[in-house]
Amino acid sequence: MKKKNKVEEEKEVEVVDEATEKTTEVKEEKPKEKTPEQQIAELKDSLLRKVAEFDNFRKRKSKDLQDARFNATCGVLESFLTVYDHFKMAMKSVDNGDSLEIVQQGMQMIFSEFGRTFENMGVQEVSAVGAKFDPNLHDAISKQASDEVEEGMVIQEWKSGYKLNERLLRPAVVVVSSGPEKEAEAEEPKEEGAE
């Protein structure tokens, strides 16, 4: 047996590598062509898969939205359960014939609890009386003459307005001052030449 030197071994490896590359290239150049029926079948299958994926996505998003609404509703209702409990206690006090003072205390507790609940939820009352009329915050139902309050200022509030953080939930329903009442001319114009 003849021993091969290193140079000969490297040449053989290179020849083998070149032969492998050529056969690989030949295999890659001859992909099997699909018939039009096969291509149509693949496209239909792909389309059906995409439609099913989208339908599943739509159902999942719909369920997520329902869950979010349910959780938000639960959170709000949970906040008002204490207020409801206070109302029940106040109604029992009235039914039991408790004194007016006890009923007033119960009503004050309910009012305070409402205030705390609104505050915890980020609800703020819109100040109206004494403020300049702002159509972004106030809903004017009428104008009223006033000698004490200048024109364009809110003089009466029928319903309070509320904001949730910086977003208006409900505008305040108000009466706006039209300024001092304008006096009708008491005197009729004098006729010329009459004396």
Task: Round the Cα radius of gyration to an integer and report it.
Answer: 42 Å
Question: Which regions are unreliable across 5 or more consecutive residues at pLDDT < 50?
Answer: none
* Biggest sheet features: 3 strands, antiparallel
Could you tell me the number of beta strands? Answer: 6
Can you tell me the number of structural domains? 2
| Strand order across the largest sheet | 1-4-5
Strand content: 15-25%
The CATH class designation of the largest domain is Alpha Beta
Mean pLDDT: 79
Number of helical regions = 3
Helix content: 40-55%
The CATH superfamily of the largest domain is identified as GrpE nucleotide exchange factor, coiled-coil domain
Kindly report how far apart the N and C termini lie.
157 Å
What is CATH's topology name of the largest domain? Hemagglutinin Ectodomain, Chain B
Mass-distribution shape: elongated
Question: Helix/strand/pairing class, anyone?
Answer: alpha+beta
